[in-house]
Amino acid sequence: MRIGLYPGTFDPITVGHQDIIRRGALLVDRLVIGVAINRDKGPLFSLDERVEMIEHECAKLSKETGTEIVAHPFENLLIDCANEVGAQIIIRGLRAVADFEYEYQMVGMNRVLDSSVETVFLMAEAKHQAIASKLVKEIARLDGDIRHFVSENVAEKLMHRLGKS
Which of 41, 127, 134, 148 is catalytic? Predict the structure, then answer.
């Protein structure tokens, strides 16, 4: 069984994330969405809320792709998380050239830690390249329209969290 791991903070999950999940699911038999606890980023949503949003959004994607997709919180090294869930592949989304430099360094470090785990990069679709959770939150804070960037479910939760519903 080919198991892939797609890690991130997903605060919140965007249509860009969903695009990478949909396409990544076609490469593996089981896709684990690694939800990073990452206290340093100061997430707007709690871990449980982020996991719930991912599970809600991925239920549709799992049916669409025929691939099992599950959420898995983690706070350890990415390579340790990959080993924990039995992943042979780490899936990373790239939006721009700026993402590549950081990701390239991460791959090098992960290969030293465990050369049996491969990293696969998926380029974001052109229409999703500008989408970042941080920017979506900022647009929502400033009363902008976020419907192009997140699902209706996520938009409702974000607006409620910001006291705008």
Answer: 41
Cis amide linkage into residue 73, ω under 30° from 0: no
Catalytic status, residue 148: no
Is 147 an annotated catalytic residue?
no
Residues contacting 131, CB < 8 A, separation 6+: 14, 15, 16, 95, 124, 149
pTM over 0.85: yes
* CATH number of residue 44's parent domain: 3.40.50.620
Domain with 80 in it: 3-126
Q: How confident is the model at residue 40 (pLDDT cuts 50, 70, 90)?
A: confident
pLDDT at site 42: 82
Do the Cβ atoms of 34 and 75 come closer than 8 Å?
no
- Domain count across the chain: 1
128 catalytic? Reply is no
